[in-house]
Amino acid sequence: MKETIDTNNPEIRPVLNFSDTLIVSISFHLLAITSFEELSESLYSTAWLSVKWTDQNLKWLPSDYGGLVKTTVPPHKIWNPSIAVLNSIDELKPIDSQFLHPTVCSNGTVRWTPGSAFRTSCKMNVESFPFDVQSCELEFFVWGHEIESVDLEPYIDHVDLDTFKENGEWELIGSSLERKFLNTEGKPHPTIVVTLRLKRRATVLIQSIIIPLVILANINVLVFLVPAETGEKISFSVTILLAFGVFLGFINDRMPQTSETTSSLSVYMSCLLAFSAVFVFMSILIAKIHNKTQKISGSWLFLYMRVLRPCCGRRKDNITVTSEGKDEEGPKNSPNVTWRSIARSIDSLLFWVFFPPVFLTSFALLIIPSILNCSR
């Protein structure tokens, strides 16, 4: 037996006829999803392969060797397929496990189980962040051989998860293993494609992003309930504006810069940031109106009488129009118009204009998906 192995040439494809195709069967056994780097769009995983083929040069009769049915052979002494990962981010090289000896059976069947830590590219779709589901692939091929010489096929049609350890950030919700072809220079090259479907565990992000964002979005509208005479109206709106800017930067730092999709959460936050800037502008305008001392013009009086007072004004106001913004007594049962009453009415109108859409949008885009995610 030793003589047979020593005289074997590991550089020659082990077939009886060089026109024959050597069939290499592969199964994929996933051990762990180590990490998923979103900025670089790279997946770290640990797994081992079960690779089988038939070596026509390593067949023997068990009766000739004391009933020996199988044995282990150093990998450098027999031919083995140069299997590599096509979408590897690190250097493109064959999987090498020189410390692991292949098992050879008397019928020529060789079983080799190399393992490695893989770093592969995975295009992210962040449109539904933080409730996104990613589909990542590992593509295996035999280096330096065309389909006429070496053909790849799956040994089992699924990913083996018997030894899989769950990841704390990503949940494996599905996997598949299938044979595909890669056309290069007009020739098909067989590949084994392992697909992993990963769902983000969003509980921590709900607590750190979604809940504070919902609170901020609704508090932002409350600036119109802060009385202008307190002097805190503008500082309140500016503080909320800065908070939105910080949140938007935090989310963008987690997103890949080359992604072809845009997170709906980022778009929503950009809209809230724009609304907050508008609220700051409106707060300054309302504060200016509140502190006016000149006589109220006819256009402002018309706006108050026809729009603001019917919607948001006080119906028990007197009719006297003042120039200093002070309340003065006028004829009974007639509206009294001051700059303060105009400012209060504008505040009330803007609150009811913005609060319902902000609340309903937050409920539809953030609260409902969070409840559905936690209930699964």
Automatic annotation (TrEMBL):
Q: Which Pfam families match?
A: Neur_chan_LBD (PF02931), Neur_chan_memb (PF02932)
Q: Which residues form the Neurotransmitter-gated ion-channel ligand-binding domain?
A: 7-201
Q: Which InterPro entries does the protein's record reference?
A: Neur_chan_lig-bd, Neur_chan_lig-bd_sf, Neur_channel, Neuro-gated_channel_TM_sf, Neuro_actylchol_rec, Neurotrans-gated_channel_TM, Neurotransmitter_ion_chnl_CS
Compartments annotated for it: namely: Membrane
Q: Which UniProt keywords apply?
A: Ion channel, Ion transport, Membrane, Transmembrane, Transmembrane helix, Transport
Q: Does the keyword Phosphoprotein apply?
A: no
**Source taxon at top rank:** Eukaryota
Q: Where is the Neurotransmitter-gated ion-channel transmembrane domain?
A: 209-295
The portions of this protein that span the membrane are 204-228, 234-253, 265-287, 349-372
How is this protein annotated for GO cellular component? membrane
Q: Which GO terms describe its molecular function?
A: extracellular ligand-gated monoatomic ion channel activity; transmembrane signaling receptor activity
State whether keyword ATP-binding applies.
no
User: How is the protein disposed in the membrane?
Assistant: Multi-pass membrane protein
- CDD domains the record matches: LGIC_ECD_cation (cd18989), LGIC_TM_cation (cd19051)
Please give the PROSITE patterns that the UniProt record associates with this protein: NEUROTR_ION_CHANNEL
Q: Which family does it belong to?
A: Belongs to the ligand-gated ion channel (TC 1.A.9) family.
Give the protein name, as stated in the record: Neurotransmitter-gated ion-channel ligand-binding domain-containing protein
